[in-house]
């Protein structure tokens, strides 16, 4: 298992290089992104002054030279300096990323805590009134745009009821509305995925056997049903977590959250190439680590997956012991 984790982490290196190269190519071909002199000095500056600034930033060098220099800086943990603010991109990202991470973590937790129980109840009570209600509500949740829902929550809870702050994250209350707005779509997906997965599990032979043995229904559902139905739920939750990390731009803009999404949006508007690249590379690495975490969680949910790694390790050990005996014979 340890070797598998190390391999997956090492696989992130070519992924990050590929993402950075693709984004760097797109940004370099986009007018204005590769002209720091014009960004800093403005449109009224002379061409000579602009070229001097571009020379200082290395923007006058060929494309591959600039890209290799940038990758060399990333290897040392340096994402460069912002064209606009002249501040370190690394420090800015490290300051803003935890805010986005807290918003998305709270969003995923809300969707799991509410979505999974409703999905289980809907599957157990199939064709009952609660099943029809949960299916209709889940379809509505997945169809509602997050930014529209955020505006509705802003008007209701901030302007009319004055219960929660309308902007900023100075206190824990500032995270509630952004996280709730992000969680609604994910919550609807959790309900539908949990329901469909549980419907497959409750029809299995081992569930009927457990009922024939006289086990309590709650114990059957929780111990034998839900645990075996969690694999697709965890997969969808991990994918949504990664998507929300990169897709929180609009929600952070609605609630004026100083997170990574707002940082990317401002960087794109300001043609700030180092900021955009640094944020995108961090999101790509985060998505890879989330997928790795999902694979590790699989082993705790389903012992058969963990047994696959143990069996492979045992086969290699037996092969290593048998090979010398074969050679000596």
How would you describe the overall organization of this protein?
The protein contains 14 helices and no strands. With 329 residues, it is mainly alpha-helical. The protein folds into 2 domains: 2-75, no CATH class; 92-312, MetI-like (MetI-like fold). The two termini are 33 Å apart. It has helices at 2-29, 36-41, 47-57, 63-75, 89-124, 129-143, 146-160, 176-201, 205-212, 217-247, 249-254, 260-269, 273-301, 303-328.
Brief summary of the model shown:
Helix content is 79%, strand content 0%. With 329 residues, the protein is mainly alpha-helical.
Defining key terms:
329 residues, mainly alpha, MetI-like fold, 2 domains, globular
Distance between the termini: 33 Å
- Note the overall shape: globular
Helix content: over 70%
Number of helices: 14
User: Rg from C-alpha positions?
Assistant: 26 Å
Please give the CATH architecture of the largest domain: Orthogonal Bundle
Describe how the helices and strands are arranged:
Layout: H1 2-29, H2 36-41, H3 47-57, H4 63-75, H5 89-124, H6 129-143, H7 146-160, H8 176-201, H9 205-212, H10 217-247, H11 249-254, H12 260-269, H13 273-301, H14 303-328
Helix pairs in contact: 1-13, 5-6, 5-8, 5-10, 6-8, 7-8, 8-10, 9-10, 10-13, 12-13, 13-14
